Amino acid sequence: MTATPTTPAVAARDRVIIFDTTMRDGEQSPGASMSLEEKLELAKILEEMKVDVIEAGFPIASNGDFEAVREIAKIVTESTICGLARAGLGDIDRAAEAIKPAKRGRIHTFISTSPVHMKWKLQMEPEAVLEMVTKSVTHARNLCGDVEWSAEDATRTERDFLRRCVEAAIRAGAQTINIPDTVGYTYPSEYEALFRDLIENVPGADGVIFSTHCHNDLGLAVANSLAGLQGGARQVEAAINGMGERAGNAALEEVVMALKVRGDKLPFGTGIDTTQITRASRYVSAITGFPVQFNKAIVGKNAFAHESGIHQDGMLKNAETYEIMLPADVGQGATSLVMGKHSGRHAFREKLKALGYELGQNALNEAFVRFKDLADKKKHVFDDDLIALVDDALASGSDRIQVKSLKVIAGTEGPQQADLTVTIDGEERSASATGDGPVDAVFNAIHEAVPHEAILRLFQVHAVTEGTDAQAQVSVRLEEDGRIATGQAADTDTLTASAKAYVNALNNLFARKEKSAPEGRIASGF
Ligand code: KIV
Ligand code: ZN
């Protein structure tokens, strides 16, 4: 079976620019913050996936965001690196500074144009907003050859005013005009007509690229993005796994695969290497602690699973009966039952490669040791086990605090008790604590060993595979002084996974605190 039998040749199709905003709008999902190292790794994955533009952050928002954009700008050479800025000149200067090292850099500046935003958020008159459009884009163009302008809340903006703002941005030198559906309010035919209107009626519109940016409040973000393309847009802003403010942004993988599979109706091509999609999705899920829903299109665990007898029978006769694309098209390995305790390092490396992981020698060695450990405890090691194991190794590899040993007394006769030993920079520290249940006892013991003020915001457990020997994958989210950090771990022992996930979240939180502390290292905590 070919994956896209009805798709016209790429050359015959219009090229759509794929703009990824996982690290900017995606990171605005409450609790989804990513560390610098995680962002650098994600940027490399997006570059390998051949994303055209990576919006790497909002440089004025924090020193961390500034640094992330600048560091990404240094290492990515194939994709354009974009920094977001409000219309203020200080914002734009900061974005320009952050993208300076980029081979290809872009400033993305925006201002609200809807009546409700101008009145309540900006407290500005429309004419003053219009002036700001010209001023901000002109300033950005003086600093960077590639400028994108967005009309925030465009879909609730009075049409005539929106046309005037777009015209002003084009005159001032913006080459990309983004028309965001900021609150996820529009619907496909309306959004398509909006692009048609702007492209037909705004002077200079034929010389710029129009862009979609859709939020998913009504579950229409992908449909609206595709409709925007039918209306003439040629850039789509989207995020991996649909991450983003509130209900999220258009899911990048869904937009890209819709374009690939339905080339007959949507005659547009992208440059995306779709075989990298699963890898990117898993990585984003691992670092943010946002699980991908099982039935999520394209990247959900069940997206290519066939459960009913009738479907399975059809699939065995011909996969086209129930599959409109191949799992391999999105980088999903074909096998599910894999390795055992006799599998060697070479087979292990090849298997990880098929699952989308290319590890350096040290990380591979560490993952292999963990795999052997797991294979000793667990009869069958499935693909999902390996994914959990590698994500766990990647998440905790450089952690300063590590769980060394844990003993828990649980059961009907309370109080439940946990005896824990951790190492902090190699030095051992032990603690015992009781709690209202074994997990509470474990977390209290961590508190004893590593005093901290963070509050637990999320504790989530799910079984990686079926069976009572399945690994538990645990996500923990902690918050302290408005800073949020997520940790993840997997283990066949749920309590061990819980302890490791909590400690991983603590490490991430402390790392963030260290970065923002004036002397570079926190006094409290350890
Ligand atoms: O949703 C939105 O309007 C945005 C803009 C900043 C582009 O994210
Ligand atoms: Zn947005």
Set down the secondary structure blueprint.
Blueprint: E1 14-15, E2 17-20, H1 36-48, E3 53-57, H2 63-75, E4 80-85, H3 89-99, E5 105-112, H4 115-122, H5 126-143, E6 147-152, H6 159-172, E7 176-181, H7 188-201, E8 209-214, H8 221-230, E9 235-238, H9 252-261, E10 268-269, H10 277-288, H11 309-317, E11 337-339, H12 345-354, H13 361-377, E12 381-382, H14 383-396, E13 401-409, E14 416-424, E15 427-435, H15 438-449, E16 455-463, E17 472-480, E18 483-491, H16 494-516
Parallel strand pairs: 1-10, 2-3, 2-9, 3-4, 4-5, 5-6, 6-7, 7-8, 8-9
Antiparallel strand pairs: 11-12, 13-14, 14-15, 16-17, 17-18
Helix pairs in contact: 1-2, 1-10, 2-3, 3-5, 5-6, 7-8, 8-9, 10-14, 13-14, 15-16
The structure holds 3-methyl-2-oxobutanoic acid and zinc ion.
3-methyl-2-oxobutanoic acid is lined by residues 25, 110, 150, 152, 178, 180, 182, 213, 215.
Can you describe this structure?
- With 526 residues, this protein is α/β, with parallel strands linked by helices.
- The protein has 3 domains: 14-288, TIM Barrel, CATH 3.20.20; 309-394, Recoverin, domain 1; 401-515, Alpha-isopropylmalate synthase LeuA, regulatory domain (Double Stranded RNA Binding Domain, 2-Layer Sandwich).
- Helix content is 40%, strand content 21%.
- It contains 16 helices and 18 strands.
- The protein has helices at residues 36-48, 63-75, 89-99, 115-122, 126-143, 159-172, 188-201, 221-230, 252-261, 277-288, 309-317, 345-354, 361-377, 383-396, 438-449, 494-516; strands at residues 14-15, 17-20, 53-57, 80-85, 105-112, 147-152, 176-181, 209-214, 235-238, 268-269, 337-339, 381-382, 401-409, 416-424, 427-435, 455-463, 472-480, 483-491.
- The longest helix has 23 residues, at 494-516.
- Residues 1-12 and 518-526 have low confidence and may be disordered.
- Bound molecules: 3-methyl-2-oxobutanoic acid (KIV) and zinc ion.
- Zinc ion is lined by residues 25, 180, 182, 213, 215, 245.
